[in-house]
Amino acid sequence: MASHASAIKKNKQDQKRRLRNRMHAGKLRTAVKKVRKALEAGDAATASTLMRETVTLVDRTAGHGIIHRNTAARTKSRLAKALAKVSAK
Fold this sequence. Notes:
The protein is mainly α. It is built from 3 helices and no strands. Helix 1 packs antiparallel against helix 2, helix 1 runs parallel beside helix 3 and helix 2 packs antiparallel against helix 3.
């Protein structure tokens, strides 16, 4: 355990950030799952609506540094590719 004031403060800040980061990452995972579920069901209209919200969330999460920008780009690319495949049917 931290024993001096600055280490105690840093520990508190780290715990707050960890919880905030977990919250954002959890929201992102849920949003991606919703889009994938809509795509599996073949519902292009719902998937398209969810896709817009999810892309915004992915960008925001990457901007905060919670996920790497390449991971964000890869996620968006894969979802867009799957949406295009479902929309083409």
